[in-house]
Amino acid sequence: MQHYEHITFKRSGRVLTIIMNRPEVKNAANIRMHNELSRVFADAGSDPESDIIILTGASDAFSSGGDIRSMRDKIADRTLWNDTVNEARALFYSILDLDKPLIARINGAATGLGATLAVYADISIAAQSAVIGDPHVKVGLVAGDGGALMWPMLIGFQKAKELLMLGENIDAQDAARLGLISYCVPDAELDTHVDNLIAKLLKLPPFALKGTKKAINHTLKQLALATFEYGVSLETQSQLTRDHAEAVDAFIEKRKPVYSGR
Question: What span, in angstroms and rounded, lies between the C-alpha atoms of 37 and 251?
Answer without folding.
Answer: 25
